[in-house]
Automatic annotation (TrEMBL):
<protein>
    <submittedName>
        <fullName>Lytic polysaccharide monooxygenase</fullName>
    </submittedName>
</protein>
<feature type="compositionally biased region" description="Polar residues">
    <location>
        <begin position="278"/>
        <end position="302"/>
    </location>
</feature>
<dbReference type="GO" id="GO:0004497">
    <property type="term" value="F:monooxygenase activity"/>
</dbReference>
<keyword id="KW-0503">Monooxygenase</keyword>
<feature type="signal peptide">
    <location>
        <begin position="1"/>
        <end position="19"/>
    </location>
</feature>
<feature type="region of interest" description="Disordered">
    <location>
        <begin position="277"/>
        <end position="315"/>
    </location>
</feature>
<feature type="region of interest" description="Disordered">
    <location>
        <begin position="348"/>
        <end position="369"/>
    </location>
</feature>
<keyword id="KW-0560">Oxidoreductase</keyword>
<feature type="compositionally biased region" description="Low complexity">
    <location>
        <begin position="304"/>
        <end position="315"/>
    </location>
</feature>
<keyword id="KW-0732">Signal</keyword>
């Protein structure tokens, strides 16, 4: 009976923890307007399994400006998971099998970093210092009270002239930088595109997918504590960093995903797939873990049990373990690493953008010197229920070696 009650409490907490973020404008299909992420299985991709309309929808003219915003519930929607990166895409398909194929979705706008925030907080429900004094909760970055970092960004994007006219489904997909697991979010909008000439359909990237199964996402996981840099962001891209007024703000670095299906994940369709973008296909690992930098690291990582440390050490070529306390000032928040060292030369390295620097349309990866990389076994709880039951999940992550190694 006690176990049953515990499970009920755990499920209740997990439901609360999963009430995350939802698009407000453009107005989503009601069944798609859900805040939790897509199922890891991919069973509810696309659009949370909503019934996809085959006609009607909001009229959007090619060349028009659309506003991308989120439902903040009067400041009560604050689980922003350190922001991240997102994309706006369209599809003209209505058949379930074709909708399930990411290559039938065409990306018309990418936002790298700052979607929907540049804050490194998991929850935007604290007290923050702004130009007019302290403020609390999730407020827009355009609010004069905000400090430009711990706030919510909204975006204007343009429907390209090169879209094809006709009935379509518009999608917003989001890959947050923090959180207990690696997730993919999606909301969908029923639209009618007019005035397009279809000239760019072969150049648009196709939908980037990650972290979900059935559609190839398990082959290309995103990197926790880094802002995603899309392999194929497209010509219409914004790299979002804090404004000049946010001097000294800490932001998460960028990382291009690596995995079996990452190199062509989101590549444009047609003969221009290989030539459409002059971008390197990077298999480089992130330059350094934010936990090793002087900033608040996520606190949902727990100490690796000694028994697991020994087990991990037995399978690596050269390993060591040493506890490293996180820099958030909370006692006991330490990571125990199980490390396999190896030398590598990074082709590209995600580099933090300093607050106050001009915002480029797209930030290309910069060359990095040879550095020692490690396979690091990090453990944490992937859900509130698993935390209550004391079940830890561990995974190997390839990162720059800690300074003490």
């Amino acid at each position: 009976m006690y176990a049953a009650a515990l499970i009920i409490i755990g499920l209740s907490l997990m439901h609360t923890a999963n009430a995350h973020f939802c698009m407000l404008t453009p107005s989503p299909i009601p069944e798609s307007a859900q805040k939790p992420p897509l199922q890891i299985s991919g069973s509810d991709f696309p659009c949370h399994g909503a019934n996809i309309p085959t006609s009607g929808g909001a009229t959007m003219e090619a060349g028009s400006t659309q506003h991308l915003s989120w439902d903040l519930e009067g400041g009560n929607s604050y689980i922003i998971h350190g922001g991240g990166s997102c994309q706006v895409s369209i599809t003209y398909e209505t058949e379930p099998a074709k909708l399930k194929d990411p290559k039938n979705w065409f990306v018309i706008y990418s936002i790298e970093g700052g979607c929907p925030t540049n804050s490194v907080e998991n929850y935007l429900n604290g007290t923050y210092k702004g130009p007019q004094g302290d403020y609390t909760g999730s407020v827009l970055c355009t609010d004069p009270r905000s400090n430009g970092v711990d706030c919510i960004n909204e975006f204007d994007f343009t429907i390209p002239k090169g879209v094809k006219s006709g009935h379509a489904i518009l999608s917003w997909t989001w890959f947050p930088s923090l959180g207990m697991g690696r997730d993919m979010y999606q909301n969908c909008v029923n639209v009618d595109l007019v005035g397009g000439d279809g000239s760019e359909m072969g150049k648009f990237p196709t939908l980037f997918v990650a972290n979900v199964h059935q559609i190839g996402g398990e082959q290309c996981p995103t990197t926790k504590s880094y802002d995603l840099q899309f392999p194929f962001p497209g010509a219409y891209t914004t790299t979002k960093r804090p404004p000049e007024s946010a001097t000294g703000a800490t932001v998460l670095p960028f990382a291009t995903p690596e995995g079996a299906s990452c190199s062509m994940n989101g590549a444009p369709r047609g003969d221009l797939a290989a030539q459409a973008y002059d971008q390197p296909t990077s298999t480089a690992s992130p330059q350094a873990s934010p936990a090793d930098q002087d900033q608040n690291a996520p606190t949902d990582i727990t100490t690796l049990p000694p028994s697991l440390s020994k087990s991990a050490a037995s399978v690596a070529s050269k390993q060591t373990t040493q506890p490293v306390c996180l820099t958030n000032g909370k006692p006991g928040n330490c990571i125990t690493y199980a490390i396999s060292t190896l030398a590598t030369t990074a082709k590209a390295s995600p580099t933090p953008t300093k607050a106050g620097a001009p915002t480029p349309q797209h930030q290309q990866p910069q060359p990095a010197p040879t550095q020692k990389m490690c396979n690091i076994l990090v453990c944490g709880y992937r859900s509130t229920l698993r935390m209550i039951l004391g079940i830890r999940d561990c995974e190997w992550q390839r990162r720059a070696c800690p300074k003490w190694l």
